[in-house]
Predict the 3D structure of the following.
Amino acid sequence: MTSPDRYAVAGNPVEHSRSPLIHAQFAQQADQAMDYGRLLCPLDDFKAHIKAFAAGGAKGCNVTVPFKFEAFELASRRTPRAELAQAANTLRFDADSAGGWVADNTDGVGLVRDIAVNAGVALAGKRVLLLGAGGASAGVLGPLIEARPAEIVMANRTVEKAQAIVDRHAAWADQHGVKLSACGLQAPGTAFDVFINGTAASLAGSGVPVGPEVLKPGTLALDMMYGPAAQAFLDWARSHGAVPRDGLGMLVEQAAESFALWRGVRPDTAPVLAHMRALVDATKHH
Ligand code: ATR
């Protein structure tokens, strides 16, 4: 009997990751033998840990904070969207004879799919405010541009960080006819159609660092977090007439893209998202 193909989510911390549960559902749906676990990596020894995991016969892994930049460096081949992000959330351990390891970043395409398909909001022609210039925001900008909104403003406390990311994406934005700019938190603009929070601000409990004038009635206000970490942002958005959305759909969609890269099949995400939603809601009410 052959043992199932092995994968894991690598991070630190990683014990709260829902990815194993999501991938178990995808595998069951696709009738594939897959063993997907959690891999806690030491902060100062990520690369050796991943190499040992691969040497042990594993086929690939997802990568979460704080290792997405190191994961990108590990691969000999990188998808264009990983190149733009300079970070990877997915590795596929192909043999050297087959071209070597592939690094991809499925966060952005997962976000865009969640907005377009699950939330039913077309991004084309819209005005988008992206808050934050850390790994989370940098990771999604390329695919957001590809969805061809009219404009994307990247607002960050440290303007220089946003400017550097915007500069790296300037040619990509031109190519797609998107007006792209960076700014601070004081005057990011008003009445955006879509507002995406990619900062750790909600986690820190310090409140939303921009004023409600960035919203208008019906603005889709999406936090990349979910559960208690997103709650303050979602409450704030709702109280100002926006349509709040957490990052659970993005989580399921990025996982589906990773699964497709590994297994060649794109799972049906709707039943998995519904299941995960029920789980998160059940936790909230206890
Ligand atoms: P990640 O990789 O998860 O995105 P990060 O690189 O630490 O994490 O980035 C966190 C983001 O949240 C940054 O954009 C950060 O702003 P700075 O670049 O100015 O540091 C933002 N952030 C964190 N705490 C914040 C706060 N209290 N107010 C405003 N922005 C905050």
Notes: The mean pLDDT is 96. The pocket of 2'-monophosphoadenosine-5'-diphosphate is lined by residues 65, 132-136, 156-158, 161, 198-201, 204, 206, 209 (CB under 6 Å).
